[in-house]
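Many introductory courses stop at the sequence. We go one step further.
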Amino acid sequence: MYCSACGVQMPDEFRFCSSCGAPAGSAAGRTAGPQLPLRRSRADKKIAGVCAGLAQYLNVDVTLMRVLVLCAAIWGGVGLIFYIICWIVMPQEPLLLPPPAPSSPQPAANPVRL
């Protein structure tokens, strides 16, 4: 059987994928899709990427998330404390670097001639 979330082949008796942790079998059809990890955004950030990461995780508009955090920061200061804690705790998205170009094989320094 193959995992419906990541496509890795797994034994039929497994209930969860050993690669991504998605449920196997009939339970896999009930999920809406793979859940994105909670990470600070690198691409859509204004200060630290906390609001963009939360918006992506919760599947809401990033502007709405920024307005909610700003309102919470103005009224009571809880939003500022929340933002700073998330900035410290949330990991940043990994850099997506292109794979290295394959190097061409080097000719042998001293070829053996027969």
